[in-house]
Specification:
The two termini are about 30 Å apart. Helix 3 packs across helix 4. The protein has a four-stranded mixed beta sheet with strand order 1-3-2-4. The protein has ten helices and four strands; from the N terminus they run H-H-H-E-H-H-H-E-E-E-H-H-H-H. The protein is of the alpha+beta class. It has two domains: about 45 residues; about 180 residues, no CATH class. It is elongated and about 75 Å long.
């Protein structure tokens, strides 16, 4: 909604509040006032957009998510950055990043090549707390259904293992990367022998075997929800969620 639309909506809400108050409809008054406060906040953010987050932070988060290929929690993004890239991302830097990205999009839609947006709960199409995605990904990849955390773990583990294979062929052997792969592979049956370091080939074989069991059902569900979201939600809500409340990652 543009500035004129926001201002018109605020005027309408104030009129409706007066009417509801005169009629003694206290429940509606409370609901209208809550909506008015939200619209007023959106108007304030649009007229006074916050400063953009430091470019290196956005770029490093984008780099980590691109390697993983799936929505990821902050601790995973930090671990990938530490293992393969600069190691400059911290949880503190990620705390307000998604909110800043949403404000930037609302104030100037699609002015950036990509946005770091939210993963969306399949149940409510609300943002999943602490889980980031990339706006350029297809909508179904940003949906989190019942099987998605597992399939995303398997997918991201395969991608990390494949990246380590490429680095090894190039003569590199990042110890941090192998530690990360080992930690991720511990949750995949048959991926790690005893408690030694993970072998990328073995990890890929084990992860693909389990992924074959769950992936088709998960993809069907995600795509069905994505179709519903695309038909019901405005673009900003497709990126950052439909509700004010966030869904638990559980």
């Amino acid at each position: 909604m543009d500035m004129d639309g926001l201002e018109e909506r605020m005027l309408t809400l104030r009129r409706e509040i007066r009417v509801a108050s005169a009629a003694g409809d206290h429940a509606r008054v409370r609901s209208l006032r809550a909506e008015l406060r939200q619209v007023e906040r959106t108007w304030e953010e649009a007229i006074n957009p916050p400063p953009a987050p430091p470019a290196p932070v956005r770029e490093h988060v984008h780099q980590a998510l691109t390697l993983l290929g799936v929505p990821a929690a902050a601790k995973t993004i930090v671990a990938v950055d530490e293992s393969f890239f600069s190691g400059t991302i911290t949880n503190a830097k990620l705390t307000s990043l998604r909110r800043d990205e949403e404000r930037s999009f609302r104030s100037s839609p699609n002015s950036r090549p990509y946005y770091l947006c939210a993963a969306l709960s399949a149940e409510r199409l609300s943002p999943v707390r602490g889980v980031l995605a990339v706006s350029t990904w297809p909508l179904h990849r940003r949906i989190i259904g019942p099987l998605s955390p597992r399939t995303d773990l398997l997918t991201s583990t395969i991608r990390i293992a494949e990246h380590l294979q490429r680095l090894t062929r190039a003569g590199e052997s990042p110890l941090g990367g192998f530690r990360l792969l080992t930690a991720m592979a511990q949750n995949i049956p048959g991926a790690v022998a005893d408690f030694g370091p993970a072998d990328p080939d073995r990890v890929i074989t084990a992860a693909r075997a389990e992924l074959a069991v769950h992936e088709e059902k998960d993809q069907q569900h995600r795509k069905a929800v994505a179709e519903r979201a695309a038909s019901q939600l405005a673009e900003v809500n497709q990126l950052f969620g439909a509700g004010l409340r966030t869904a638990s990652t559980a």
